[in-house]
Amino acid sequence: MPSSSQVQDAVAARLHPFLASLDSESADFGPDARVFFDSAADALEGGKRLRARFCDTGWRAVARFADRSADESTAVWDLCAALEIFQAAALVHDDLIDNSDTRRGRPAAHRALEARHRALGWSGDAEAFGRASAILLGDLLVAWSDDLLERALTDHPQASAVRAEYARMRRGVTTGQFLDIAEESAWRVNPDAEHAERALRVARLKSARYSIEQPLLLGALLAGADAAQQEALRGFGLPIGMAFQLRDDVLGVFGEQSVTGKPAGDDLREGKRTVLIALTRERLDASARRLLDELLGDPELDAAQVSALQSTIVESGALARVEEMISAYAQEADRALTGARLDNASVSELRELARAATVRTA
User: pLDDT band for position 362 (50/70/90)?
Assistant: First the structure.
């Protein structure tokens, strides 16, 4: 099975010539456009390539069940690379929405564009330029993702099925992103007892399906997966995606900056209404809940306040309950693969990827 570094190399091998072809096409756009295209290329650097790994494994699980000698084609890796470009677009917009200054230990795209404006000595509001440019940058990356997807599907017999699932993925994650930001305001007018379920819905749409289930299914569809194979992979992918997002929520509150690349407690400063927060609120009395609500979403939270909120979450039992949910989702996913008509080696890899996605520090 390809290692993480091998998947990264394979994706890079498809991205580099693709970007080179776009460079040649944009030669007449002028020197200022170079800032834009360089920022797009920078946004594609780094990352775990998680979606590419699940996409490739989904393809192999089906293709090698039918033919053990099947080997990845350029279409598979173009599809993997298209997913990573779409992920880069989502991160650019996500950082802008969340007012995040960093991504992967480097300036977020809107901050890098802001800095570029200043370095070039341009007039006007550098911060406004960075934010406006990042909106367009995310849009450009979405367009590039579609371009590479279409290249992967040229004359491919499974083009229609893959294209339809990719479109569902795009609609779902965009809606999930909206629900995520809406929940930061809408929580106040909804009963406390509904907060956890609302947060789970956001997690399912914004991350769980998009991060694991749909990349896995896209690869399988490209290989010609039948209905039973699709059902098994969905049954694995969705709960692992939920566990992945719940782990992300835990790291957003308790993760170490040196490992995650983001300041400790960043989700607290951003006011994320996650399952972790919903479960915490359920266990607090009215006064403690009011204090939590007052502090959550304050971008100026200092280290002591973050530490106090972390203690409140732990003492409420919410962290332990989320850990139990992660374990339960992982077990549900594992059961979905039992007896599935999939390549045995690929099933073993899926189980390893599941552990990596749910037991992690970044």
Answer: low
pLDDT in tens, 9-47: 999 999 999 998 888 878 789 889 989 999 999 999 888
CATH 3.30.9.100 is the classification of domain 4-358? no
Residue 261 has pLDDT above 80, yes or no: no
> CA-CA distance, 154 to 352, in Å (whole number)?
32
How far apart CA 10 and CA 25 sit, in angstroms, is 24
Average pLDDT over residues 57-71: 94
Q: Say how far apart CA 339 and CA 332 lie, in whole Å.
A: 14
Q: pTM score, two decimals?
A: 0.91
Query: Computed from CA positions of residues 337, 80, 168, 358, in that sequence, does the dihedral angle turn out positive or negative?
Result: positive
Q: 3-state DSSP helix/strand/coil percent for the chain, to nearest 5?
A: 80, 0, 20
Residue 250 DSSP label: H
Q: Are 77 and 13 in contact (CB under 8 A)?
A: yes
Amino acid letter for position 55 = C
Which positions ≥6 away from 130 have C-beta within 8 Å?
A: 110, 111, 112, 113, 114, 115, 117
C-alpha pair distances (Å), 327 with each of 158, 231, 323, 333, 356: 35, 21, 6, 10, 13
DSSP secondary structure, 267-298, as one string: HHHHT---HHHHHHHHTS-HHHHHHHHHHTT-
Contact of 22 with 37, CB cutoff 8 Å: yes
Domain ranges of the chain: 4-358
Please answer whether residues 145 and 89 qualify as being in contact, where contact means their C-beta atoms are separated by less than 8 angstroms: yes
User: Token match 């946004």: residue?
Assistant: 43
Taking a C-beta distance cutoff of 8 angstroms, is the pair 112, 100 a contact?
A: no
| Alpha-carbon span 37 to 16, nearest angstrom | 13
DSSP per residue over 90-109, as a string? HHHHHHHHHT--EETTEE-H
